[in-house]
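Request: Have a read of the protein record below and say how the chain folds.
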Amino acid sequence: MDTNFERFVRYGVFPGIAKTGAECEKELAEVYAAIDEVASYNELKVLDAFRHVKFSDVHMGSTTGYGYDDIGREKIEEIFARVFGFEKAYVRVQISSGTQAISAMLFGLLRPGDTMLSVTGKPYDTLAATIGISSGDNDGSLKNYGIDYKDCELREDGSPDIEKIISLIDDKTKMVFIQKSRGYTARKALTSGDIRAIAKAAHDKKSDVIVAVDNCYGEFCEREEPGDLGCDICAGSLIKNPGGGICYTGGYIAGHEELVEKCARHLTTPGLGSEVGPTLGFNRMIARGLFTAPKCVAECLKGAVFAARLLEKSGYAETSPASDAVRGDIVQTLIFRDEKKMYDFVGKIQACSPVDSFVTPEPWDMPGYEDKVIMAAGAFVQGATTELSCDGPMKPPFIAYMQGGLVADQAKLAVMLSLS
């Protein structure tokens, strides 16, 4: 056995599984190298943004109340805008989830009579109520305000159906919406090439259509971000990739200046927009989180590809993406086709967590989801998916979604224990 993997045996991994893990590690050397190369590119890009805006210790101060003239907030938003390839960003601790950031993007830009076209099929469960397509109470949704919705499924191979997208764009189509990550589906995440093709096709058909991206789980997985790909705006959460495992809360919207300001007006009030919003001492946390984010995402990806390779070898679960596939997000899909296998695997993830390792996850009616969800999330920050977690709806074919891992060894231990 590779002596580097003997260390896992003392924590309960069977020697035979540790040996297989060591084999996986060697086989993945080139994949790891490619992940490190992207991380290095993004680390330097983020560093350059900090240097360009002349970020200083004075910018890590604090404002309260209205938060007028918060120079640190302004610098951080300038950094985010550059990193994501846009002119302006709105980065606030008052945004508590990615869904809230995306909802603000939709409500800020769409008006009665407009049509939103989702080109990656039905969006993630938590956004369905915002749109007005969930089975529950849709009061206050886009539909409730007279905003129409259409969607276009991806092709069978997971690629965007460009011809169908073009055919669905008409005079009322105000927004083409792209969900980069897979959500609670078995489809693959979109890559930068997919997103570029959608943006170009949409703008060629209707030059003033807004191409908006749900960027959650996808930041820093590749070299390019939505602004580099011809999109108009994107949104995400700071307790996912761009928070670097450091942010306690927060979200961001980045895009063309007039679009971002419209979203800010929705979150605050017309006439005030992005001018208000105290940072309450969180500037240091947000800046530091962004600075460490590319390296953090690399650790998440290494844990995911290891899980994919080991489970491919064992046949314990079907995996997507494959261990050697190009990845557009940090999520690893695991199809168990067996309720007990899924339950046991999620339990092992929880048992390898630094927080609440001694508890057993149970399915529950999680807000915003239509089915009972089981979730392992022994994280320092509640719901933070850059920290190792695994969750999914308890229904056939019993698919779990593993993501995160501030250190890849945590994910490796958890997966090897699940087979031990």
In short: The two ends are 16 Å apart (CA to CA). DSSP finds twelve helices and twelve strands in the chain. The CA atoms of residues 371 and 395 lie 8 Å apart. The chain has two domains: 3-42+293-418, 52-290.
